[in-house]
Design brief:
352 residues, 13-stranded mixed sheet, alpha+beta
Length: 352
């Protein structure tokens, strides 16, 4: 990169505190300014290197899915009649994906990178030469399903929907009654793009970086829920819904397979999926649902357990617009690992 590109693409090292750390942990999944250097600002060789970096943080299937989501901007543009205009040259734009690197790659100090724009947010942290965090990880698809030649359909996130619906529909009535927290689906994932996961209400305005194109009803809850409905779906430290411990063997297999559609986004050796080979770990994963369990109707679900929050919605555009988020409530952005790293090095420095 030249000097001007570096000013846009490079941020301070992780963990320095203040506004610099606030920016590193500020993330979006809407088509807003994610912060960093866009494809449009890169030469083709640089663009290719960015995609190599992105691929290094993903499994083969994860990379294919991300590349497909980028390409869906072209499909969405056609769905909208090539007519949406937010005051830039092109609104639905596969060239408006942003890279920002935090710190110095390969150095002794922690460093990380963030990549994303509409329906993609990848956040990676490296500490002591090892990948220390890969969350928040967000993928979306709009359209969630698109026709292909020969009667096939392009559904980049379809398995995450199908397995969850199969699982909730397989529950016996008394479990289903506990799993379905609300008869209507929220407008968006409950945690939104919060930096930390708690029961705070995320406003629509927070899903966008401040600027001229913050959506209407900006101060309304992103979920569209209030009162008793909001409380029914609120995130609480004690997970809601039905735990894996109460599922039968076939349902537990479905739950494990559903987890894999999120945790297999990242490479083997980085993914926490092997953790759930332990029956006790799978026991603690709770399934909760909102909305209809019928195909083609608005719905939401989440999987919650220790160090795990997965959220899914398919609500808008005639139930053809999916959001799929994976979080680690204890270590999003590598907060715990950074704290431990700095404590260790601080102690070592003062111990000399």
């Amino acid at each position: 990169m030249d000097a001007d590109q570096r000013k846009v693409a490079i941020g301070p090292p992780p963990g320095v505190g203040g506004e610099a750390e606030a920016e590193r942990t500020r993330w979006f999944y809407t088509p807003t300014d994610h912060g960093g250097l866009t494809f449009h600002e890169q030469r083709p060789a640089q663009h290719r290197l960015v995609m190599r970096l992105v691929a290094s943080g993903l499994s083969e299937a994860g990379y294919t899915t991300v590349a497909t989501v980028l390409g869906l901007e072209n499909v969405l543009d056609r769905v909208e009649g090539f007519s949406v205009n937010w005051g830039r040259e092109r609104t639905r734009d596969p060239g408006m994906y942003y890279l920002r690197v935090f710190g110095e790659p390969g150095g002794r100090q922690p460093w990380g990178w963030r990549f994303g724009s509409h329906h993609v947010s990848l956040n990676n942290l490296v500490v002591d030469g090892r990948v220390a965090a890969t969350t928040p990880s967000f993928l979306g698809a709009d359209p969630a399903a698109s026709p292909l030649l020969g009667g096939a359909a392009l559904r980049p996130l379809g398995t995450s929907e199908d397995l969850a619906r199969e699982l909730v529909r397989s529950l016996r009535p008394e479990l289903a009654a506990r799993a379905v927290l609300l008869s209507r689906a929220p407008d968006d994932i409950v945690a939104g793009n919060s930096t930390r996961i708690d029961d705070r209400v995320v406003r629509r305005s927070e899903l966008w970086r401040p600027g001229p194109h913050v959506p209407d009803r900006a101060e309304h809850p992103a979920t569209g829920l209030d009162g008793a409905n909001r409380r029914a779906l609120a995130l609480t430290p004690a997970a809601k819904g039905v735990p894996g411990a109460e599922l039968d063997a076939a349902q537990r297999e479905l739950l494990h397979a559903l987890l894999s559609t999120y945790l297999d986004r990242v490479p083997d050796g980085v993914s926490p999926l092997p953790r759930y080979d332990d029956p006790a770990a799978l026991d603690a994963v709770h399934l909760a649902w909102a909305g209809s369990t019928r195909t083609g109707e608005p719905h939401y679900y989440r999987l919650q357990g220790p160090r795990l929050l997965i959220e899914w919605t398919n609500i808008h555009r005639g139930v053809n617009h999916a959001h799929a988020a994976w979080r680690d409530p204890e270590n999003d952005f590598g907060g715990d690992v950074l704290a431990a790293h700095h404590a260790l090095h601080h102690a070592a420095h003062h111990g000399r």
